[in-house]
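FYI - complex with heme C, inputs then prediction.
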Amino acid sequence: MDRRRRPARLLAGVALAALGGLALAADTRPPLRAMSWIPHDADLVRVFATQPTECLTVPTDPAAARSIEIGRAAFRTPVLLGGQAARAGLSCESCHRSGRGNPDFQFPGASGAPGTADVTLSLFSSRRGNGVHDPKPIPDLSGPRDRLKVASAGLPDFIHGLIVEEFDGHAPPPAVLAGLADYVRALSPAACPKAAREPTTPRQLLDDARRALTAAEAVAHDDRPTAVLMIAAARARLFLIDERYAAQPRQIARLRAADADLAALQTQVRDGRPDAARGLARWRAASADLEAALGAGRGASLFDPRALRRATNRRLPPKTS
Ligand code: HEC
């Protein structure tokens, strides 16, 4: 395992994967990357046109809120996890969807029954792999605290171990580790909306990206590594929109341009350029136009349940078992 991986290289890989998805549209890969880790008989429309609602309380205290927002974005960022998991596109959220569990998670070689995962698997980790296939149910992190195994105070150590040992990631910046623990602590059954699921929309993914960039702006001067990761979080959200518009060149061109702007801003933040935070704010403001363009093409995109059904009937290989 190459332990000198650089995030920039990984991000380039993500961008290339996105381009590859377009160029190889005729191959048998599923149209959405996350379709590689669901059971063959899953209801694709339920799993991909909707998602669980998030049970999150964001406090009014600005510093506490900022920490939770940093954690929320990191939770959704594949580059946070290293090695195979990051390359496959897995983030914390792949298993803990919207901070809950994921009854539809079945990663080839890493799961037993749907909804389980083996997080001590050599596939993901060169350090902690125990050579034993022992998948465990993925816990709902929004569940009652007393039903969770890890005490609130133990969360930073537990999450550090997860990232560095189970997933081979780099030790995250301190603010990101603290943020992840604060995010998990801010999830609770009391905060669950009435509806258990909601439609997955381009606006929601863009909102996630904008929230990540707001967090990036706040720390762009004082904590560049965290800001760089927050911009990676926003770009990962754009990737998830991109793959659903693969057949629409106009929207794809806008998305790629918006992503290229974020890549440039990421470099500016990394280099400590003083105007980087203003650039991030400008990107957020301009994203309203992007959102309108995406909205106009939504009916033909894989956000639309009918389009999703058509695309998946045609392309998913037949059930083998
Ligand atoms: C491949 C799927 C997978 C990924 C990715 C994943 N988890 Fe988990 N997580 C699990 C499973 C399975 C368990 C239960 C492990 C056990 O019971 O031993 C778990 C347990 C936990 C727990 C303990 C819950 C308790 O009972 O107290 C926390 C907290 C947690 N994960 C947070 C995270 C965070 C943060 C990330 C990202 C850094 C992450 N997980 C990524 C599958 C995953």
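The CA atoms of residues 242 and 255 lie 7 Å apart. Residues 75, 80, 90, 92, 94-96, 117, 119, 136, 138-139, 141, 148-150, 155, 158-159, 162-163, 180, 184 surround heme C (CB under 6 Å).
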